[in-house]
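User:
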Amino acid sequence: MKRFTFLLILGIMIFASCRKETIQPVVDPSPTTMDQLVISKNFDWKTTKDYQFTVTGSSNHTLRIASASGTVYHKAFLVKNVPYSVNLTLPSYEKIHSFAL
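Assistant: Predicted structure:
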């Protein structure tokens, strides 16, 4: 009788543990269309920025406007005491630093 009870309990446990697992599909949170993008209202979509430079040389020499990494965006020859103005469109990731010579 003990053996029958043991086999009965074992059978019930095996039968109860057999359940079909439901696999949930993995949802990719990455947007697949432009309509699904969530974009901040203050994002301006510009990749360039306009700058105006005005320089007056204290002597005749060459002006060079370059990035910190050495990329030259503009070169010009300055004449002593004559203002030189130029409008440049630069990549928006560049930071402009003013300096005096």
